[in-house]
Specification:
The complex is a heterodimer. By secondary structure, chain A is of the alpha+beta class. Chain A has three domains: about 10-200 and about 265-285, no CATH class; about 295-410, no CATH class; about 420-480, Orthogonal Bundle (Arc Repressor Mutant, subunit A). In chain A, about 40% of the residues lie in helices and about 20% in strands. Chain B is about 35% helix and about 15% strand. The interface of A and B includes residues 41, 50, 84, 270 and 275 of A.
């Protein structure tokens, strides 16, 4: 079986970043507060309460629909999805069923074959988030659960794709693109915990479909799908069937586990929510304005700053990074475009990930100062990384950040030049200390020169220009031979 | 605003009240110092609200229903919470978990339902007015059976916020009183838009009843005098309509063919909505607590089995079935078509007549325990449910007696023409008074 026989479809639930909940005035900013502090009779589902639709949430959802090229349905409808669970205070979720807000549309991704491809969408609908269960105790001592309704009623959109992705990697790309688009639209905060949840459908062609429920991280989606591909292939290889079922993803172990078979599924008994009128949005559609979206910005980065396509893609993949890049190259930073693209897209992202820190903490001017030192050849790339790390650590801790120049002079990271006596001394020292390598060099072993240059680099703490150093070492070896 | 209290110590020999507020406070306004009884499915802040169900025993709402807030703001005193069929499911108030209410006209008979407690409290003179709710006749039926006036307003004209839902798309809060003027007065307080109920309309009620009905065109649907309607009741109502003709109204015979399916459609819709509305009663947040030692679904089952009475359980099961995948199209979707047909019939008739008149109930009040099988009880709703399906206003006004028991004349009007049905009832009431 070849990998093009993998079929993946996603259902992505995103919390809309509104100030108040979908059907009441409670604040959505609950993450730093105690349980059940952002609740009222409506979102607690107290008897007799009724929902009042948050217009802003619908406007946000329509922005998404428009940005993803969907057809907005002029009259949509809310329905009740009935099921029992302690986190669902009304025992039904108000959602949209057969008349969703929007249908069709697509998300463009770079396919595994390197070509841009449109992943078609089925629909987008709006619904309320349920509350949350907090499990206490363990198997040995009194297991019980507590319910927190702070999350109950947070507006969600569910974006359903057609099963058109061909690999776990494509699914990840789809999600990244979606996340970026929603972030650009100002309707979604990807940094909020639990703001995105994904159900993934996967099947190997000709085989039953498996649904993996409630994956809560971007990485998790790719990992869960990769695990499933392997599991399902093994199943078939052993001559077994793949069962049509729902599985859970166990994030900590990176595996999926059977949850229930399709036959045991809930019958949700959908019917139109009688407490809300049909949603007519025709007259708003024209008022929905879109900002520059990731694809347009990527093209602009290529045109305006001469970024490579890959760099442009990385830089525009997250709104904050794109903004940071533009801040760095604005004003005096005009000449720094290509350096900035490389350093932000390649080096900085890795360092940020390593520290799990947000780009928010960084000061673009100061960062540009570092790039100026690199551009003028004042420091080597290696020293540049060192200076950047010092700055990042300070930003991360919220301490005052020295200027790049100050860091260079304090740590003595200025680039040494060819006629620097210390540098020549280091070269000669390395030759004396490594007779074996010198011997190898003479017998034509290529690796030997790299080793000797590396040793010298160490002695000079990376301050030497690698090209310069290489030249000096070759000359020194030549004169030693004579 | 000054706060006063009244003393309310009724002789409640009819079990009309589930909860009496002995010293209710009140402010000043249109209803200053008037004791108003509130049906127990309408939320009252700080006063236990049970819907006459064990499953809500001990539930004290932290907020007032919009209508309750309005009567308080105009000076009324909430005198207590009245008995009802559990969650409004019944036509006799026998389905209360806390015992039936007796009819003040004959304590061997039911007061009608489901707002039987409110009707009995008014009929016995314990309160001047009361709030009831009407899902399929629950204001009009007990009004007719107890000999008082009850208005089922146009759907959406009174906010439902705080009304503990049984069947959202059908029900409304409405006024009950001994005479039309008081019904009109209470309606003027509770009607109007509420931003917390987005199905409510901005149609305030500022009307003063007028007895002038000259030239009014009254449709007489044959179905309201046909099979299943007690001939004695029919005859009393015909006589009352004759009085309206004497006052200058013109009668026009007509027919509502869609009534054939109205009752079936009504029971599919109300039980479907109920099955969803009542699912939240699980013992987690209010009411008698679930046994936390058990798994959540086992605990839910216990709470719901012990908390709901047999009629409520029956309707939850019917509604659950009607909404199930594979049956939705056969039942719920079909019921909506039947409902639409009822609406169309009324629209067609109202292009030719101003109101429709007929009996409110096909019989006089039944004896306690007389209707022991659910179906015969359901059948007694046949003349009241079409109005709820169409969302139009209707009033029941006393129009005579059969075997010493009161009979109600039902006047149905166009959507938002609550004023007109009130005028017709008022004209009749004033005519027979003289």
């Amino acid at each position: 079986m070849i990998d093009s026989d993998i079929v993946v479809g996603l259902e992505v639930h995103c919390q809309l970043d509104t100030k108040s909940k979908l059907f009441c005035g409670c604040s959505t900013d609950y993450r730093n507060d105690g349980p059940n502090t952002h609740v009222c009779p409506v979102c607690l589902g107290l008897p007799g309460t009724m929902p009042v639709l948050n217009r802003r949430a619908i406007e946000y959802a329509m922005r998404v629909a428009k940005a993803l090229n969907c057809t907005v349905i002029p009259e949509s409808e809310f329905s009740r999805k009935n099921y029992f669970y302690p986190d669902l205070d009304k025992a039904y979720q108000v959602t949209q069923y057969d008349k969703p807000l929007a249908e069709g549309g697509y998300v463009e991704i770079e396919g595994d074959d390197g070509k841009e491809r449109k992943i078609q969408l089925t629909r987008i609908h709006v619904e309320e988030d349920p509350g949350r269960l907090v499990h206490m105790g363990n198997a040995e001592r009194g297991r019980y659960s507590l319910v927190d309704y702070n999350r109950a009623g947070i507006p969600l959109i569910e974006i359903v794709s057609e099963p058109e992705m061909c690999s776990p990697k494509e699914a990840r790309k789809f999600l990244n693109k979606l996340r970026a688009t929603l972030e650009y639209l100002g309707v979604f905060d990807p940094e909020k915990e639990g703001s995105l949840r994904v159900d993934a459908n996967i099947s190997l062609r000709g085989s039953e479909r498996v649904e993996i429920k409630n994956i809560t991280s971007y990485k998790g989606v790719e990992r869960a799908l990769t695990f499933e591909v392997t599991r399902q292939k093994n199943q078939l290889r052993r001559g077994l069937k793949v069962d049509r079922e729902t599985r859970h993803y166990l994030e900590a172990r990176g595996i999926t586990q059977s949850a229930r078979s399709k036959e045991q599924e809930n019958d949700y008994r959908y019917f139109p929510e009688p407490d809300l009128r049909p949603l007519r949005v025709q007259s708003w559609v024209k008022d929905i304005k879109l900002p520059e979206l990731p694809d347009a910005r990527r093209e602009r980065f290529v045109q305006q700053y001469g970024c490579s396509l890959n760099h442009a893609r990385t830089l525009t993949g997250e709104l904050k990074m794109a903004n940071f890049f533009e801040a760095v190259v604005s004003g005096d930073g005009k000449g720094l475009c290509s350096l900035a693209a490389t350093w932000i897209a390649d080096t900085l992202t890795g360092e940020l990930n390593y520290r799990s820190m947000s780009i928010d903490a960084l000061d673009a001017k100061r960062f540009a100062g570092l790039l100026v030192l690199l551009k003028t050849g004042t420091i080597t790339d290696k020293s540049g990384v060192e200076v950047m790390r010092v700055m990042l650590d300070a930003w991360h801790k919220g301490e005052p950040v020295e200027t790049p120049d100050a860091i260079v002079s304090r740590l003595n990271l200025g680039k040494t030049t060819g006629d620097d006596a210390a540098l020549l001394g280091a070269v000669n020292d390395v030759i004396t200390e490594n007779p074996k390598a010198v011997e190898d060099y003479k017998t034509g072993k290529n690796g030997a020169l790299n080793f000797l240059v590396g040793q010298t680099m160490k002695k000079t703490r990376g301050c030497a220009d690698p090209g310069e150093l290489n030249r000096l070492m070759v000359e020194a070896l030549k004169s030693a031979e004579q | 605003m000054a706060v006063h209290t009244i003393s309310f110590e009724p002789d409640d020999r009819y079990n009309a009240f589930l909860k009496v507020c002995a010293k209710p406070s009140h402010g000043e306004g249109k209803l200053t110092g008037i004791a108003v009884a509130v049906k127990d499915n309408i939320s009252t802040q700080g006063i236990e609200t049970t819907c006459a169900s064990k499953i809500l025993k001990g539930y004290i709402p932290p907020y007032d229903a919009h209508a309750v807030g309005l009567i308080k703001a105009t000076g009324a005193a909430v005198a207590g919470k009245t008995n009802m069929d559990e969650f409004g499911m019944g036509t006799s108030t026998e389905n209360s978990a806390f015992g039936p209410t007796l009819n003040p006209c004959d304590t061997g008979r039911v007061p009608g339902g489901s707002s039987g407690g409110s009707a009995a409290a008014v009929a016995a003179g314990m309160v001047r007015m009361a709030l009831g709710t009407d899902t399929g006749g629950s204001i009009r039926c007990p009004a007719a059976f107890c000999g008082i006036v009850g208005l089922k307003p146009t759907y959406g004209r009174v906010s439902r916020y705080g009304l503990i839902a049984y069947a959202n798309s059908l029900e409304t809060i409405g006024p009950m009183a001994k005479n039309v003027a008081d019904v009109s007065l209470l309606m003027s307080v509770i009607a109007g838009h509420d931003r917390k109920d987005t199905t409510s309309y901005n149609k305030p009620y500022t009307h003063t009843p007028s007895a002038d009905i000259k030239g009014l065109r009254i449709g007489i649907p044959e179905e309201y005098f046909g099979k299943g309607v007690d001939p004695e009741v029919a005859s009393v109502v015909r006589k009352a309509i004759g009085r309206l003709e004497e006052l200058g109204a013109v009668t026009v015979p007509c027919s509502i063919p869609s009534m054939e399916y109205a009752l079936a459609a009504y029971y599919v819709i109300c039980t479907s909505e109920a099955s969803s509305n009542l699912a939240r009663f699980d013992g987690v947040r209010y009411g008698p607590a679930a046994d936390t030692k058990k798994s959540w679904h086992a605990a839910y089952q216990d709470v719901r089995k012990q908390g709901f009475g047999p009629e409520v359980r029956r309707r939850i099961m019917l509604g659950t079935f009607a909404l199930s995948s594979g049956y939705y199209g056969k039942y719920y979707a079909k019921a909506q078509i039947a409902r639409e047909n009822v609406r169309k019939d009324f629209t067609r008739l109202f292009s030719n007549v101003d109101v429709l008149c007929g009996p409110t109930m096909p019989t006089i009040a039944f004896k306690l325990g007389e209707k022991s099988d659910p179906l015969s009880m359901y059948l007694s709703d046949i003349l009241t449910v079409p109005v709820n399906l169409a969302g139009i206003p209707a009033i029941s006004v006393p129009c005579g007696k059969v075997q010493g028991m009161p009979v109600g004349l039902q006047v149905m009007g166009r959507q938002f023409e609550d004023e007109r049905v009130i005028d017709v009832a008022y004209a009749y009431e004033q005519a027979v008074k003289q």
